[in-house]
Amino acid sequence: MQVDGESPLFVISVAAELAGMHPQTLRQYDRMGLVSPKRTAGKSRRYSMRDVAQLREIQQLSSEGVSLEGIRRVLGLENEVNELRARVRELERALADEMLNRPGRRVFAAGAEGEVVTLRTGTRVRRENAVVVWRPLERG
C-alpha cells in the first residue's frame, strides 16, 4: 500500500488529537459534510493527513469568527479553485503537446463565447475587441 496525504490512516481519536479537537466535533463535521473521512468495511472513520489539515483549517477559521456555513463556503471555493487549477494545467499540457506536434505557426483567437478558435496564418480578426494570442515556434 502506498501512503500519501490521502491515505486513511487515523482513527477518530488520533485525528481529533492531531487537530486539537474533541472526537464529537469531528463526528459533527462529518455529518455536516465539512470533513468526510473514508470508512472501513466496519463503517468506522479513518482520517488522512489531508483531513487533519482541513480540520486545522476549520479550527483556525472558526477561531477567527467565521460561522460553520461560512467555513463550508470557504472550503467549497478552495476545492473549486484546486479543480480549476488542475484543469488549467491539463489544458496547458494539451496546448503544449498540440504546438509541438503541429508544423509551422498557429494563431488562436477567443470566440464570442470564450472558446479558442484557430486561425490560419495571416488571417485577421474582424472584431476590434477580440484577443489574439500568438507565440511562434522556437527554432533550435
Automatic annotation (TrEMBL):
Keyword DNA-binding: yes
Superkingdom of the source species: Bacteria
Domain HTH merR-type: start-end pairs: 9-77
UniProt keyword terms in alphabetical order: Coiled coil, DNA-binding
SMART domains membership: HTH_MERR
Stored PROSITE patterns: HTH_MERR_2
Annotated Gene3D superfamilies: 1.10.1660.10
Xref: SUPFAM superfamilies: Putative DNA-binding domain
MF-aspect GO terms: DNA binding; DNA-binding transcription factor activity
Coiled-coil residue spans: 74-101
Protein name: MerR family transcriptional regulator
